[in-house]
Amino acid sequence: QVQLVESGGGLVQAGGSLRLSCAASGSSFSSRTMGWYRQAPGKQRELVAAITSGGSTNYADSVKGRFTISRDNAKNAAYLQMNKVKPEDTAVYYCRLGTYYPYDYWGQGTQVTVSS
After folding, report:
1. What b/e readout covers 60-82, taking b as 16+ CB neighbours within 10 angstroms?
2. β-strand 67-72 against 3-7: which pairing, if any?
3. Coil, helix or strand for 43?
4. Statement: residue 9 has pLDDT above 80
5. Within 13 A of 55's CA, how many CA atoms are on the CB side?
6. Quick one: DSSP state of residue 27?
7. CA spacing 20 to 30 A to 60: which of 44, 74, 94, 95?
8. DSSP letter assigned to residue 103
9. C-alpha span between 28 and 73 (Å, rounded)
10. How far apart are the C-alpha atoms of 73 and 34, rounded to whole Å?
């Protein structure tokens, strides 16, 4: 019923930029919080950024000032603009719709690899 599909991942050099996209279908979108999470090998999944239905944003300290989350409700989409990327940003990035289990949904993830 609910599907989230991430795209835009890939290989990028340190200091470069990358833009991730998340397309949602099968559910209402505009009234719910969207978030980006990431998980690197051997590490726990962590919140990178979130944006509420009203446009308020929240960022992890490690990405604040470098990443920007946005949404386009007309397209049922969310985005993560990643600037000045670092090798430690390397991870699988996941899109999430909603904030309360079991009424939250996850995408399949997209790999981001930052080379130095």
Report:
1. eeebeeebbbebeeeebbbbbeb
2. unpaired
3. coil
4. yes
5. 2
6. S
7. 74
8. S
9. 10
10. 11
Two structure tokens written together for 108: 């399949």
**Cβ 24 vs Cβ 107: under 8 Å:** no
Q: Tell me the two tokens of residue 6.
A: 């991430």
Q: Tens digit of pLDDT for each residue in 52-103?
A: 999 999 999 999 999 999 999 989 999 999 999 999 999 999 999 998 888 8
What pLDDT score was predicted for residue 30? 84
pLDDT at 109: 97
The neighbour count for residue 34, using CB atoms within 10 Å, is: 27
* 47's tokens: 């919140």
Task: Say if residue 14's pLDDT is above 80.
Answer: yes
